[in-house]
Automatic annotation (TrEMBL), chain A:
It comes from the Bacteria. It holds the Pfam family DUF3019. The keyword Signal applies. Keywords: Signal. Residues 1-18 form the signal peptide. It comes from Shewanella corallii. This is DUF3019 domain-containing protein.
UniProtKB/TrEMBL annotation, chain B:
InterPro entries: MipA (IPR010583). It holds the Pfam family MipA. Residues 1-22 form the signal peptide. Keywords: Cell outer membrane, Membrane, Signal. The keyword Membrane applies. Belongs to the MipA/OmpV family. The keyword Cell membrane does not apply. This is MipA/OmpV family protein. It is found in: Cell outer membrane. It comes from the Bacteria.
Length: 130, 297
């Protein structure tokens, strides 16, 4: 299935390790970060969002993708979210404080289109008589 | 009178209509000017009924039951229905190609000439020449004449090589082509200037080609001339002359599915005087027609 071709080419970059980041700075990570889509086939995959370093009890995650517009945690024990996404466009995620709507951190999932092979102009009529 | 001028203006405005109107979303065989994926063979075959009239005395018209279409385009080299080419320049507005292909005149004399390849062959049909090759040839005499007869030598097929320039405009594509016999058969030349455009009317695609073909005196004399040793006593000889022949080709295609389309093809050539004056010709023109279904593999 062509979708699987897109999936197979998804895992281009490793997830950033939160341990290597400053502990006091809230971070939002998306994994994978990039999907390479074959022409006319969107990326279909499970996106994992993880966040650390926030002192807020509640956070919400927003995106500019219609399939996932807003999600809020129920408790501060939750630090990850998995989304099943089908898209051929980049998705911008933002983690916000629901009480102030202030952006705490953000992350971007990128979709790269595999370029179409270059085509040539045909010089002859395929059905010309004689 | 006013109405006829309006009709002419309407036809002209359609013919010269910008390409934006004529954009094609056909998903069948790539048509002229449409994109070809590089290094992929494109095979298609049309099956139906058609006929190519033979202007020569004593040679049958050529049935057309099967039309193949085979094309391959590499990064620069290409093969397209018998034409072999190499692109020197391919820009947005124009392209320049080295081009080679079989001459088409031998096809009148030999049913199995490459220019007639596959045409009618798979479904039977009578071979074009009543007698093949070294042909006892007689034409219908005028009442007062003695019937002329000829013992024609073989008119050999040859391969032509040369170059072409294609110029793409919003009001159609122009092509100038010149080729030389490269197998030393007749050492003649051909040149062609053509204009091509198409229109998309709903799903119906209409392709129109107008061309003016010039053939040199060596070529015309080789195929349509009659030497003294070919003519029986009293029969006229003929020296071919370089000549211009206009051609119009009008094609209609209508897609049924992504791979299947209906075709109606028509072509008419009026031979220039250098060819038409030959005693070998019974007609000064040739027409072809084909109706059928085409399938892309």
């Amino acid at each position: 299935m062509r979708v699987h071709l897109a999936l197979a080419s998804v895992l281009l970059s490793p997830m950033l390790h939160a341990d290597s980041l400053p502990a006091d700075k809230p971070t939002l990570e998306v994994w994978p970060q990039i999907c390479v889509a074959v022409p006319e086939t969107p990326c279909k995959l499970d996106l994992q969002l993880k966040w650390r370093g926030t002192s807020h009890n509640r956070i919400c995650i927003l995106s500019d993708n219609a399939q996932f517009t807003r999600w809020c945690n129920d408790s501060n024990a939750v630090h990850s979210l998995t989304l099943n996404i089908t898209t051929d466009k980049d998705i911008q995620f933002e983690m916000v404080d629901p009480e102030t709507n202030r952006i705490i951190a953000d992350a971007k999932f990128r979709v790269t289109q595999l370029s179409e092979p270059q085509k040539r102009r045909r010089y002859r009529n395929p059905w010309s008589l004689f | 009178m006013t109405l006829s001028w309006r009709a002419i203006l309407l036809i002209l405005s359609i013919l010269l209509m910008p390409k934006s109107f004529a954009s094609s979303d056909s998903e069948g065989v790539s048509s002229l000017g449409e994109p070809m994926s590089p290094s992929q063979w494109q095979f298609a075959v049309a099956v139906g009924w058609g006929e190519k009239s033979n202007p020569l005395f004593d040679y049958d018209d050529i049935p057309v039951y099967v039309l193949p279409s085979v094309a391959w385009y590499g990064e620069r080299a290409f093969f397209d229905n018998g034409a072999i080419g190499y692109t020197l320049w391919d820009g947005y507005d124009y392209s320049i190609n080295l081009i080679g292909g079989f001459g088409d005149d031998a096809g009148w004399f030999n049913r199995w000439d490459p220019s007639n390849l596959f045409i009618g062959g798979l479904s039977g049909g009578s071979p074009a020449p009543a007698t093949d090759m070294s042909t006892k040839f007689s034409r219908t005499p005028a009442s007062s004449e003695t019937e002329p007869s000829y013992n024609l030598k073989d008119r050999k097929l040859t391969y032509m090589g040369g170059g072409e320039v294609n110029w793409y405009t919003s009001m159609g594509n122009w092509r100038a082509l010149i080729m030389q016999d490269i197998l030393n058969v007749h050492n003649g030349q051909i040149a062609m200037l053509s204009w091509y455009n198409y229109w998309q009317i709903m799903k119906l695609r209409v392709d129109l080609t107008l061309s003016l073909n010039w053939k040199s005196s060596q070529l015309v004399d080789y195929y349509y001339g009659i030497s003294a040793d070919e003519a029986s006593w009293g029969s006229p000889t003929y020296d071919g002359r370089g000549t211009f022949s206009p051609t119009i080709e009008l094609d209609f295609s209508y897609p049924i599915t992504k791979k299947l389309e209906l075709l109606l093809l028509g072509r008419y050539t009026r031979f220039g005087a250098g060819i038409a004056d030959s005693p070998l010709l019974k007609e000064d023109n040739s027409f072809g027609v084909f109706f059928g279904a085409a399938y892309r593999f």
